[in-house]
Amino acid sequence: MDPALLEKYQSRRVPRYTSYPTSPHFHPVDEATYRCWLAGLDSGASVSLYLHIPFCRSLCWYCGCHTKIPAHDGPIARYLAVLQDEIDLLAAALPSPMRAVHLHWGGGTPTIAAPEALEAIMARLRRRFVIDAEAELAIEIDPRTLSGETASALRRMGINRASLGVQTFDPVVQRAINRVQSVEATRAAVEALRANGIRRLNFDLLYGLPHQTVASCEDTARRALEFRPDRLAVFGYAHVPAMKLHQKRLDAAALPGAGERLAQAEAIAAILCDAGYVRIGLDHFALPGDALVASLRGETLRRNFQGYTTDAADILLGLGASSIGSLPAAYVQNIVSIKIYGEMIAAGRLPAARAARLTAEDRFRREVIERIMCFLEVDVAEVAAAHHIDPAGLGAERAALRAMAADGVIALSGDHIRVHEPYRPLIRTIAATFDAYLAPDAARHSLAL
Asked: What is the pTM of this model?
């Protein structure tokens, strides 16, 4: 990448575009409206389910998630009991028991829960929803805390994909971010999962952390390859201490600059691609036989709150405090406060707090952004026609795109955009051209690189 262009484009703060509109542009919503949207769903449609478990054993100082560190397991047990009640409330608000084709447990650390509690929630889901026999049932795991009993419980629950947080194997960086995790602990978790038949494994890696170097990123990538995970997600650390106060514990002076961050990301990408992995979108890599690669090649790849996915369902139902769902009418987020979440459920109320009602223009812009993020190209006029939008109103967007084309960042032919491969790391910035809500001083978002 041209260093001058890197300097020009990296300084803008832009969303990760796991939704559009993005969550800062959600507004308060009342329960009656949410219930109306749920009741109006097509009973024959398939759905995805997301369950948020907002607890961890210790706090990683880079973390951007909604999570808490309980002093004992009492709050966890109480929360999981409330979650079961929310499952009942949500299912009762639907027009009929709906078929679930994808389920994702996120956090926090979902496997912080007692094995029997996890199994109880899964049993409740199976009673309230029709879990498709081919459904992907995925869970996020902290390898440092996975027990053999929990791994066995996951097998009994039908879990068939696990995402393991690795981040880095560099001990210097691990100490700097308050997450010490040995290769041996990771290996023990991988072996326990595979011994229980859970063979679809994802690894999460991070670059851009304090004291991280190209060499340490390369070493982490090579060590991760020893486990041959099916997928790897390679995220850039988002330093937003104004939003996540615990990030102030990190040594900001030790954070790499934009050029170094890009070098780290591309070094990891080179090692993974040389090992046979296929590069997908901004930050995912998958083995050639993985379903994610098939969806990329078949142009059915999607992007949602879990990143790149094969999940084709148009309805995502979020469960748990702070979870976000996606309905045909709107995005909906549950209340973030665990205390208020529990009070609302106890009162028989669905805990929806914020939403973004989708307009025809939102849907058009969302598809354009998603196609750029997934496929690095899009025919804007074609998408506009599908959404009955007049592209004549895109004057400002066209001017910005012409400037990018003049810089060699994209190829522009009429309304067809294609990102030049060296500028793949800038696809968030390119997609942001179509974000009608993004403010120039969007400080809550991370830098483009």
From this structure: 0.94
- One DSSP character per residue, 303-358 reads EETTEEE----S-EEEESTT-EEE-SSEEEEE-S-HHHHHHHHHTT---EEEEEEP
pLDDT, position 448: 65
Three-point CA angle 9, 11, 17, nearest 5°: 80
Tell me which of 1.10.443.10, 1.10.10.920, 3.20.110.10, 3.10.20.310 is the CATH number of domain 360-434.
1.10.10.920
Confidence of residue 30 (pLDDT cuts 50, 70, 90): very high
Positive or negative CA dihedral for 278, 284, 289, 294? negative
The answer to whether 22-357 and 360-434 have equal CATH topology is no
Q: Looking at domain 22-357, does it have CATH number 3.30.200.100?
A: no
Q: Which amino acid is at 13?
A: R
406 touches 398 (CB < 8 A): no
329: number of Cβ within 10 Å: 17
pLDDT confidence bin for 13, thresholds 50/70/90? confident
pLDDT, one tens digit per residue, over 263-315 is 999 999 999 999 999 999 999 999 999 999 999 999 999 999 989 999 999 99
**Per-residue pLDDT tens digits for 210-228:** 999 999 999 999 999 999 9
pLDDT level of residue 7 (50, 70, 90 thresholds)? confident
CA 410 from centroid of its chain's CA atoms: 26
Could you tell me the CA-to-CA distances from 102 to 51, 131, 241, 325 in Å, in that order? 11, 8, 33, 13
Q: Which residues of 395-434 are buried (b: 16+ CB within 10 A; e: fewer)?
A: eebeeebeebbeeebbebeebebbbbeebbbbbbbbbbbb
* Integer Cα distance of 357 and 334 in angstroms: 15
Cβ(33)–Cβ(284) under 8 Å? no
Is residue 63 within 8 Å of residue 246, measured between CB atoms? Answer: yes
Kindly state the tokens that stand for 410: 């994209």
In the chain, what are the domain boundaries? 22-357, 360-434
Compute the distance between CA of residue 424 and CA of residue 428 in angstroms, rounded to an integer.
9
- What pLDDT was estimated at residue 444? 65
User: Contact, 16 vs 306, CB < 8 A?
Assistant: no
Supply the mean pLDDT for the chain: 95
pLDDT of residue 442: 58
